[in-house]
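lol ok so funny story. i was supposed to be doing the assay writeup but got distracted and ended up predicting the structure for this chain instead. priorities right. anyway since i did it might as well share w the group, maybe its usefull for someone
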Amino acid sequence: MSNQLELRSTFRFSEGVNTISLPSENRTFETAFHAEKSKTVESSPSLLKKNSFAVATSISQAFYSNLGSDAKSSIASYSSKKFSSLVNKSFSSSKEFLSLKNIADKLVGFDFQQDSSYQEEVKSKFCIKKGSHAGHVILHIPAFVPQNDLNVPKGATNFKVFARLISVSDFEKSGDDYHALNRKQHGQFADFETTMQPVLRITTQPITSQLRIENKEFSPAGMSSIFVVGVKYFSYKDKKFNNLPESTKMCVMGVY
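and the output, tada:
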């Protein structure tokens, strides 16, 4: 559950994904979280995998199944296989320990669309900072002008910025198999979404939010998390907002 909090203090940040420098007079953040065990995670209680490709597939399944219904409806059909392949190729077969944290440079910037990319469509640079552990991220959305900083699709009248933090277990080799080091967090997530925003040539208010994976058995040990940011568009007609899934843009902004 999330309630939007707008901070009007001046933030110091540099372009791109960077550390946020926060004014000392205001360190209160909105917390947005939603944790739930994924129903599509592998049924094996220990998540044993025979090889790195099986691990990559399990990670991809846990990741994609928890992106949210709106986001999943906009993803190109080949995307999950492409993600699995990228993860598998990045894992060396000689490694005894498999963790997304170790291949973060390969995953950051991964785009989910085929015809256009997030980086080309969203000019406003959002700032991300890792929180106290791998299941905690701080997102700052600076003020921007929608009509100038977004490549607004035809027919769109409104938009929302959204984010997901999804955790996956690290894996360690034991004999011929890999076993999950933190299977209880495999597929847990936290999410955030702004309120409906109009597409205008007027500057938005800056927003800062925390995403934190929280559950009774949470432990950041033996896990990594993937942070996704996106923009989805809506058309207002007949007193109703209609989602335009083919226009959604999103990409991986961080791996922790």
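Confidence is low (pLDDT under 50) at residues 1-45. The CA atoms of residues 182 and 221 lie 7 Å apart.
back to the writeup now i swear
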